[in-house]
TrEMBL record:
This is Uncharacterized protein. SUPFAM superfamilies: HD-domain/PDEase-like. It comes from the Eukaryota. The lineage of its organism: Eukaryota, Metazoa, Ecdysozoa, Arthropoda, Hexapoda. InterPro entries: dGTPase-like.
């Protein structure tokens, strides 16, 4: 029974836990996105039962009639990733912030905490948990409002973000090979950009950067639906997996679950240039 208490907070088997429900509520409110998932019902019909498919081992299980509610939970997660966490604009800004921080790091920008005489570069902050925990928004603003001439390039990138002068999204490409990992897919495209575009002089290859959208069911290659167990009203002490969940999730997987690489260019491009790059790299149109 004790091990099932931790599953309520963080469920590594199927991803149904209160940590996820918490950020669903907070983020959907802040983003003004309506969600249909009802965590109260799932809590009401949640219990520990012996799972027939797992040698009668006890697991946190749910009532069979909550199948559609569980479906909605995964849909909400994918929806938030699609419209917010991994949206192309978020990807763009994240890449720009990383570029700005790398530029600052290269010219010796440091952070320091009381009681520690050492000054840490941003690339060294992970060596101290105390220092790492201080890397909040203040780093962004420390660079932005600095008058240090060495930070001019870093400041210019941050100012571009504030002025909404983001990197140009050139195009995208979806992963089609099931066996290929997301990171390998991104690396392959990065190498293709270097190989193809290094032969021309119109665009600086170093100005191209690739972002990655990787939306899955929360467990990467594993299917969490295989570890969701349902009990019936007629027998609340026994539960088993339900293939109906797999059938429900199939249309949703085609709509939201995907691995997609986004190709950005750091400077301005004419529309004719964008189309030419798309053709050279076989990229889909940037929506």
């Amino acid at each position: 029974m004790a091990e099932n208490l931790s599953v309520i907070i963080s469920n590594n088997e199927n991803g149904i836990d209160v940590d996820k429900w918490d950020y669903f509520l907070r983020d959907s409110l802040q983003l003004n996105l309506k969600i249909t998932f009802d965590y109260r019902r799932l809590l009401q019909f949640c219990r520990v039962a012996a799972v027939v498919d797992d040698g009668n081992t006890e697991h946190v299980c749910f009532r069979d009639k909550e199948v559609t509610n569980i479906h909605d939970m995964f849909l909400v997660r994918a929806y938030l990733h699609h419209h917010a966490y991994q949206h192309r604009v978020c990807q763009n800004i994240e890449i720009m912030i990383m570029d700005a921080f790398q530029l600052a790091d290269q010219v010796g920008f440091t952070v320091q905490i009381p009681g520690d005489p050492r000054k840490y570069r941003l690339s060294e902050a992970h060596e101290s948990s105390a220092v790492f925990s201080t890397l909040t928004d203040h780093v962004f603003y420390s660079i932005l409002y600095s008058v240090d001439p060495h930070l001019a390039l870093s400041r210019s990138v941050l100012n571009r973000i504030l002025r909404r002068e983001l990197y140009r999204l050139v195009g995208s490409r979806r992963k089609t090979q099931e066996a290929q990992g997301a990171k390998d897919f991104k690396y392959e495209l990065e190498q293709e950009i270097k190989s193809i575009l290094s032969l021309q002089t119109e665009w600086e290859v170093s100005n191209f950067t690739v972002g990655l959208i990787d939306i899955d069911m929360d467990k990467k290659s594993q299917n969490p639906l295989k570890h969701i167990y349902l009990y019936k009203k007629s027998n609340i002490n026994e539960a088993k997996a339900n293939p109906e969940l797999l059938q429900l999730m199939q249309p949703m997987s085609n709509q939201f679950f995907r691995v997609e690489a986004l190709v950005f260019y750091k400077n301005k491009l004419e529309e004719t240039e964008v189309k030419k790059i798309q053709e050279m790299l076989c990229l889909d149109h940037a929506g």
